[in-house]
Write a structure and sequence with these properties.
It contains six helices and 13 strands. By secondary structure, the protein is α+β, with helices and mostly antiparallel strands. This is Endonuclease/exonuclease/phosphatase family protein.
Length: about 280
């Protein structure tokens, strides 16, 4: 074997041994900020292009959103045609806020999907309980990656926001954890959401009894820990999380993209890269 042949042979062995980029799964959580708020210069019409640009730059495979109105979802896929999205709103229709899940059509196949509500009748759309002033829900899907046919579940949620809702958030966390526990064993689970409470809260404790928080476990972290910044760029709370089981978080990043002093949302999105 010539020296050149040996070099090529060695390179082939290294390339075979290293995990390919296709083995990575990029997951984003992004509170869109509803388009019905009185946001003035931060209204949706002024930031929808920047919202799409932020996603385009990060190129996630799948995104769990919160506060998404149908128009916002449609505006986004119009700008990013490689994505599609699905989900009912919190009343089981398409007139209010959705936990819309976006995914790349060239990377993932949607196997099945569904939703449930945080109430004593979780299968009944629009139901609320425990003192919730409005319905809160979970949108979920089973995906298959086209490159290798590996499957995973993605669940997306948005918990109550008021200070006095901490007990309700804990009950939501318990119901979510119990629902996840009934999923088929051996299939990875990823949860995205705006949990409206910090990692020191009981909801986080309930969920991380069986799931790992990417921000706490990934060996590589970028950006600030806190995510809610109210359009100021100065975050004060870490309420947007990506949790998982059955996969390894390789890195996680809080994305602080802005343009001309404007931000795509009042939350910073978070993106985690997993080895699936």
């Amino acid at each position: 074997m010539t020296r050149l042949s040996r070099l090529f042979f060695a390179a082939a062995i290294v390339a075979f041994a290293l995990p390919s980029a296709a083995a990575e799964l990029k997951v984003m959580t992004f509170n869109v900020r509803t388009m019905t708020g009185k946001d003035g210069p931060n209204g949706w019409e002024f930031r929808r292009d920047l919202f799409a640009d932020t996603i385009r730059k990060m190129h996630p495979d799948v995104i769990g959103t919160q506060e998404l109105y149908k128009q916002q979802g449609d505006d986004t896929v119009e700008r990013l045609p490689e994505y599609t999205w699905f989900g009912r709103d919190r009343y089981g229709k398409h007139t209010d806020e959705h936990m819309g899940i976006f995914y790349r059509k060239d990377a993932l196949k949607l196997i099945k999907s569904g939703d449930f509500w945080f109430s004593s009748t979780p299968d009944k759309p629009g139901t609320m309980d425990w003192g919730n002033p409005m319905p809160r829900m979970v949108n979920w899907a089973l995906f298959e990656r086209l490159s290798d046919h590996k499957q995973f579940y993605l669940l997306d949620t948005h918990l109550p926001y008021r200070d006095q809702d901490e007990d309700i958030r804990t009950r939501c966390g318990k119901l979510l954890a119990a629902w996840i526990a009934k999923l088929p064993k051996g299939v990875p689970v990823i949860v995205t959401g705006d949990f409206n409470t910090g990692p020191d809260g009981e909801a986080h404790k309930e969920l991380t009894a069986s799931l790992k928080d990417a921000w706490e476990t990934a060996p590589k972290r970028e950006g600030p820990a806190d995510t809610f910044h109210n359009f100021t760029g100065k975050p004060t709370k870490r309420i947007d999380w990506i949790l998982s089981s059955g996969v390894t978080a390789k890195s996680v990043q809080t994305i602080t993209t802005s343009k001309d002093g404007r931000y795509p949302s009042d939350h910073f999105p978070v993106q985690a890269t997993f080895e699936l």
